[in-house]
């Protein structure tokens, strides 16, 4: 999903963690430690933001087909 100007939609760490179904502090830890092949955050000032499309693609790729 992108905004009308083509820029990616960015979400907070809290929202990203909810999408990934983990606690926000767990997500922060994974970023600090380089754990897992999660999408890379974008630093905006002193905070991280996550591309919504990348998170959705990641979650979809990790789902197990029944």
Automatic annotation (TrEMBL):
InterPro entries: DNA-bd_dom_put_sf, HTH_17. Keywords: DNA-binding. One of its GO terms (molecular function) is DNA binding. Signal peptide: none annotated. The keyword Ribosomal protein does not apply. It comes from the Bacteria. Residues 10-62 form the Helix-turn-helix domain. This is DNA-binding protein.
């Amino acid at each position: 999903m992108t905004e009308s100007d083509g820029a990616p939609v960015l979400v907070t760490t809290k929202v990203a963690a909810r999408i990934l179904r983990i606690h926000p502090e767990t997500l922060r830890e994974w970023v600090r430690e380089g754990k897992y092949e999660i999408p890379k955050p974008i630093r905006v000032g002193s905070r991280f933001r996550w591309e919504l499309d990348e998170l959705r693609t990641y979650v979809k790729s990790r789902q197990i087909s029944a």
